[in-house]
Amino acid sequence: MSEHDEPTSGTAQDPAPQEQPQPEHGEQVSTGAAPGANVETAVVPDAAIPELVIISGMSGAGRSTAAKCLEDLGWFVVDNLPPALIPTMVELGARSQGNVARIAVVVDVRGRRFFDNLRESLADLESKHVTRRIVFLESSDEALVRRFESVRRPHPLQGDGRIVDGIAAERELLRELRGDADLVIDTSSLNVHELRAKMDAQFAGEEEPELRATVMSFGFKYGLPVDADLVVDMRFLPNPHWVPELRPFTGLNEEVSNYVFSQPGAKEFLDRYTELLQLIAAGYRREGKRYVTIAVGCTGGKHRSVATSEKLAARLAAQGVETVVVHRDMGRE
Which of helix, strand or coil describes residue 282? Predict the structure, then answer.
């Protein structure tokens, strides 16, 4: 795959059609405060508090592309803002009389000396009842190395070591933030248009649903999806691959779906797992988590996982959950 373009947010540069996320380097936003300064913020008026999205993740995974997408959707985007200044930015947005209703902030290791302040800033936002979401851009080590080598840039944290050393250091630095993320997007195999489509699917709607679900079929032989919140293993059912007349088809075909759900335990599993998801979804809503990725796997990601994903997505949609279905490995054979 080719590489995403990673322009700094706010530029007019448009990514090439088949490019993937490249490493980003850019200047820090001028804030008017000395680096590391202790910034006092006033109480934000509740009625005017803007919506806040924090974009972070691995260098080269597509942060700037994600930020540019939000900018195109009308968000006020600030690239590489020191975390200590995020509450100040929210306060300024609240004082804009509605002119800045949605703010996206890119936080990354270019501001690593400020990164320790992020958790304190998040706690400050929570005390002010600011609705914030964290979008984390993820990618495999192999994809990141390829992107850095293609643009002949060092990783921001590699120092005198190798690119992989910088990637490992960054993963460790971001581990806790990734765990707190509301939405994790794996860009390892995405081009720029596919990444933008994922961002559009999550943020383009005028009304925010309570919960959005991505149901993803996959093949275990190709590896687990790294952005999965929940994983379902359908290999307890007979494999249609071994039925000659079904082998050429996929789980999208009625013949395959009927075969899968005629097996003992298939319908019972779907019923009970749907009930379990209702319980999980209620907990996610209480905790303010708006996105969930449910990965449904079988051996090759062609028959059982595809048929189950379609049925499960239909059940979720009927319950009022906005649902997107992705068949990651279908057609890969």
Answer: helix
In this structure, the chain runs to a length of 333
DSSP E strands in 38-177: the ranges are 51-57, 76-79, 102-106, 132-138
Q: How far apart are the first and last CA of the chain?
A: 17
- Residue 109 near residue 59 (C-beta atoms within 8 A): yes
Classify residue 62 by burial, with Cβ atoms within 10 Å: 0-12, 13-18, 19+. Answer: buried
Closest CA to 59 of 100, 18, 107: 107
The DSSP code for 133 is: E
C-beta of residue 294 within 8 angstroms of C-beta of residue 214: yes
Tell me the β-bridge partners of 288.
none
Digit-coded pLDDT (tens) for 173-232: 888 889 889 999 999 988 888 888 888 888 876 555 568 899 999 999 999 998 899 999
Is residue 54 within 8 A of residue 86, CB to CB? The reply is yes
Round the CA-based radius of gyration of the chain to a whole number and report it.
22
Contacts of 221 (CB under 8 A, 6+ apart): 299, 300
Q: What is the DSSP letter of 73?
A: T
Alpha-carbon gap, residue 104 to 301, rounded angstroms: 35
Cβ–Cβ < 8 Å for 95, 222: no
* Pairing mode of beta strands 51-57, 291-298: unpaired
Neighbours of 313 (CB within 10 A): 22
Q: Which tens digit of pLDDT belongs to each residue from 240-282?
A: 999 999 999 999 999 999 999 999 999 999 999 999 999 998 8
Cβ count near 160 (within 10 Å): 6
